[in-house]
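Quick one from the shared queue. A colleague (R.T.) flagged VOC family protein as missing a structural entry in our internal table.

Convert sequence to structure tokens.
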Amino acid sequence: MAKRGSLTPLGPIMQLAYLPSDFDAAIRHWTEVVGVGPFFLLENIQLGDMTYLGQPTDAVFSVAIGYWGDLQIELIRPENDSPSIYTGAYAVKDQLHHVCILVDDIAKARAALLNAGATVLIEGKVGDSGAVIYADPGGGPGHIVEYVKPMDGGIELFAMMRDAARDWDGSDPLRKIG
């Protein structure tokens, strides 16, 4: 039996994330062709104490989140050109950009990443009580893994989005939050 990788025990993938060239066209594709939705739009996100490759950055981005069964689909729109995984070498478009894993302990995730030789790309705070790390475990652009410790209320927000998708009739495919 093959040995499991040292990052596997951190948790299962719960999200597939994309950085589309045309955000609006991607929303239409995912809702009208694939049937994912509704999407919930969170605009102008800026992580607290955000760093990119260890340096402070003021990157701002928006996301649309929808559910395909229990799998979360995230579409990302960068809102500025500040250094991040949404600009430069890691900004692969129109293909899988990263996957996401929810964790209870962000310090444990960071230690496992460093132990595995991964490159920490982005770190930051999510609200007052959450945190996130995006890392390259060795595959380069298109192979980023995101680890999120949700902020208070984050799990419930995701549950609301997932529940909205269960019997979605196709109406109101993009809903703004905040």
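The mean pLDDT is 95.
Residues 11-166 form a domain with the 2,3-Dihydroxybiphenyl 1,2-Dioxygenase; domain 1 fold (CATH 3.10.180.10).
Added to the table.
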